[in-house]
Amino acid sequence: MRIVSWNVNGIRAAERKGFLEWLQQEQPDIVCVQESKIQPDQVTKKLRHPEGYATLWTSGVRKGYSSTATFVKEGLEPQTLDLMGVQQFDDEGRVQILRYPDFNLINAYFPNSRDERARLGFKLEFFSDITRLCADMVAKGENVILCGDYNVAHKPIDLARPKPNENSPGYYIEEREAMTAFLDAGFVDVFRRFDDGPDNYTWWSYRARSRERNVGWRIDYHCVNEAFMPRVKDCKIMPDVMGSDHCPVMLEIE
User: Fold this and answer.
1) Contact at 8 Å (CB) between 131 and 185?
2) pLDDT tens figures, 15-30
3) Domains observed in the chain
4) Could you say which of 149, 158, 189, 220 is catalytic?
5) Number of neighbours of residue 166 by Cβ within 10 angstroms
6) Which pTM does this prediction carry?
């Protein structure tokens, strides 16, 4: 099974840039989309019913902001779809929980901490709540895949220019420590189990030809509980896929 996570920075814009063509060509089993920025009544028929896929949409209250969606191959629909259960995050459509018999797939769009730490407290609350949610699932004997845009580069290797960005949103020490606390709770940054090298990024600024020069950040992740790792076969960043300022990240499991 191949599970792709992709912040599309607006699903309607991504549709115009070839998202559905990519979906049909790549044929992943599941695609978790973040920052879809769409309300249910704005979803086109082509987006709602791509050939061979069912779709699940979770929209925020505010139009054109945040929100998540998941594209699932027909026959792989989850048993249930749940939200996070925390109103301030559900009001922004930040989390979808797809429950399957042998794992829970969580599609998450983590808040941006913003300049001058304007929303850092909100971000840290989200980290705390999602960590608790995942740990509670594992305590019940359930497996967890938490994928999405975490909006944080965890370590210096995860961004091209760590020193100049020490006081930048996405690299504040507080959010990096929150990421460490999440992993210390029994979870694995899967990509790093397969590739511990530099220059692996998932987001590039639109400015100064950043993507062309690969001056980027790795802020999109697949994380799983440690006991689930034997089922993980691969995790790959797909930097050549265009259509957003992020690129997709693919997880392959048995």
Assistant:
1) yes
2) 999 999 999 999 999 9
3) 2-253 (3.60.10.10)
4) 149
5) 12
6) 0.98
